[in-house]
Amino acid sequence: MDLYAVLSQILVGLSRTVILFIVSSGLSLILGVLRIPNVAHGSLYMIGAYAAYTISKYFGGQDTGFWVALFGAPLFVAFLSFIVERSVFQFLYEREHLMLVLLTFGFSLIFGDLVKLVWGGEYKTVPVPRIFQGYILLFEHLHLPIYNAFLIIIGPVVALLLWLFVNKTKMGKISRAAAVDREMVGAVGINVSWVFGVTFVIGCFLAGLGGMLVAPTISVTLGMDHSLIMESFLIVIIGGLGNIWGALLGALIFGLTQSLGILLWPQFGIVFPYAAVVLVLVFKPKGLLKSTW
C-alpha cells in the first residue's frame, strides 16, 4: 500500500459518496417533512437504475441514450411516486409510524416483484457514454475515471440546488413550516396535502437520480436496493434529520470509511463504515449537524 493507492481509494470513495448522498438526501427530505420512514426508497432507487437501462437502450445506448436517461429515469420514478402518494399516502399521514413503516415495506416488496416481472432476473448494464470514457491523469501516477470525476462534480451541485430549494424558495419554506406545525400551515389556507405531495415526489426523484447515476458503474440487478436503504437511513441519522449538508457529511463519512476499509483490511472492509456510525452516535446521538426540522 502506498500514497497513490490511498488517494485512488479516496477518489473511489468520493464517487460512491455522491450516490449515497443523493439517495439519502431524498430520504431525509421525506422523513423530515412527512414523518414517513420510507422503506420503499431503496426500491425506487432500483427502479431508477432499471429505467435508465431501458431508456438508454431505446435511445441508442451510449451518448444520447445516457443523457435522455439522466432526466427520463428520475422523472419516471417521480411520476410513479406521485401516483402512489396521491392514491395511498395522502390519506395516511396521521397514522402511527409503525403502520407507515409496514406500508412502505409492503410497497418495497411490490416494487421488487414489479421489477422482476418487467425486467426479469438477469443482470443489466448501462454503457458509459463516450464523453465519459477514459481516465484523467492526476499527479502522474493516479488515474481517475472520467465518469467518477463527473459524479464527484455533480454531488455538490445537487447539494447546492437542494439547499436553495429548502431555504430560498416559497415551496421549501412552506415545507419546513409544515414539518413543524402542519395544522397552523393549513389554518392560513395552504393546501398541506399538496405540499407533502410535492416534497414526497422530489425525494423520490432523488432516489431515481441516484439509481440512474450508479447504473453505468455496476450491474443493475434485483436486490441492489437492500443494502442501499439501510445505508441511507444510517446516513440520515448521523447527519441530522432534514439537514442537507448533514446528509452530505454522513455520506462522506460512510463512503470514505468503506473505501479505505477495503484497502486496509479487505476481508472486513464492510465493517468500517458501520463502526464509524457507531462512534458518531456514541458522541453525537442527535447527529453531526443540527436537525433543521
Describe the structure.
With 293 residues, the protein is mostly helical. It has a domain at 22-223. It has eleven helices and two strands, in the order H-H-H-H-E-E-H-H-H-H-H-H-H. A two-stranded antiparallel sheet has the order 1-2. Strand 1 (135-138) and strand 2 form a beta hairpin. Helix 2 crosses helix 9 (224-239) and helix 3 (64-87) packs antiparallel against helix 8 (192-214). The protein starts with a helix and ends in a 10-residue tail after the last helix. The mean pLDDT is 88.
Largest sheet: 2 strands, antiparallel
List the total number of helices: 11
Mean pLDDT: 88
- What's the β-strand tally? 2
Q: Strands of the biggest beta sheet: in what spatial order? A: 1-2
Fraction of residues in H or I helices: over 70%
Structural class: mainly alpha
